[in-house]
Amino acid sequence: MPLFEDAAFRALQSGLDAMWLKQQVASHNIANVETPDFKAKKVEFKQVLKEAADGNGPVYQAVVGTDNDTEARPDGNNVQVEKEELDLWKAYTEYSAMTSRMSGKLSTLRYVINNTGK
Questions:
Q1: In angstroms, what CA-CA distances link 54 with 16, 48, 50, 104?
Q2: Residue-range definition of the domain harbouring residue 93
Q3: What is the pLDDT along the chain (118 residues), one digit of tens a residue?
Q4: Is residue 85 part of a domain?
Q5: Would residue 7 count as lying in a domain?
Q6: What does pTM read for this prediction?
Q7: What's the half-sphere exposure (Cβ side, CA atoms, 13 Å) at 16?
Q8: Does the residue 8 lie in any domain?
Q9: Which residue intervals make up region (Disordered) (predicted)?
């Protein structure tokens, strides 16, 4: 089994990628708050079936879509800065928590490598 192919490591890696994407989308929306007819983007998590021999079952994938549910201003733009700032903060805190967990996992691995065979 490859070193970084356990389920927890893959889950953390996917989570980090998803939170990074959420930060990018929120930043892009904030940058376009004054663009006429701009429709805010949002990140959705869709369940997809993984076609793999290991049989892990369903996997969730982050997908960027357009927010058509939010009411637009007279200029056609539907970006809500407060909502985007909150989404950006939440994605940042979740990303930070996952990086701390990943760091702990790698520190444990480093400890095992450095202290094996002594």
A1: 23, 15, 10, 26
A2: 13-115
A3: 466 677 778 888 888 898 999 999 999 999 999 999 999 999 987 765 454 445 555 566 788 999 988 888 999 999 999 999 999 999 999 999 999 998 998 898 888 888 887 6
A4: yes
A5: no
A6: 0.77
A7: 14
A8: no
A9: 59-78
